[in-house]
Amino acid sequence: MPRPILKPTEEQRKRVKSFVAVGVPHAEIARLIGVRSPKTLRKHFRTELDRALVEANASVAGALYNKAMDGDVGAMKFWLANRAAWHSRPASEPSSVQPPAFVVRLPTGGSQS
């Protein structure tokens, strides 16, 4: 007897998106929503699997951006370090650009002619 064809419900689609957003593996998601295998999950929930993580990351990035724009210095530093590749350097770490070295010759005690 063949298995019945899966017809995903809106509730299942929402649950899949929320599980993907927080990093639950496909095999666990399949088990949690009552789907037989990760392959079946991928077949019937491809859009949710593809979009959920991107949407979650965009939401978190938006919230972080808003905090930075509201003056949260920690959020500003995090954003600049991770999105703008700005990194602070410890005071003990030398700069990669060294100032030029100068040699100054002082006159000796002898006479000048």
Task: Please tell me about this protein's structure.
There is one protein chain. By secondary structure, the protein is an all-alpha fold. The protein has a domain at 10-83. Helix content is 55%, strand content 0%. The protein contains 5 helices and no strands. α1 crosses α4. The longest helix is centred in the middle third of the chain and has 24 residues, at 46-69. The mean pLDDT is 87.
What is the fold's blueprint, element by element?
Layout: H1 10-21, H2 26-33, H3 38-44, H4 46-69, H5 73-83
Helix pairs in contact: 1-2, 1-4, 2-3, 4-5
Strand content: under 5%
Distance from first to last alpha carbon? 115 Å
The low-confidence runs, each spanning 5 or more residues with pLDDT under 50, are: none
Secondary structure tally: strands: 0
List keywords for this structure.
elongated, 5 helices, mainly alpha
Task: Produce a short descriptive summary.
Helix content is 55%, strand content 0%. With 113 residues, it is an all-alpha fold.
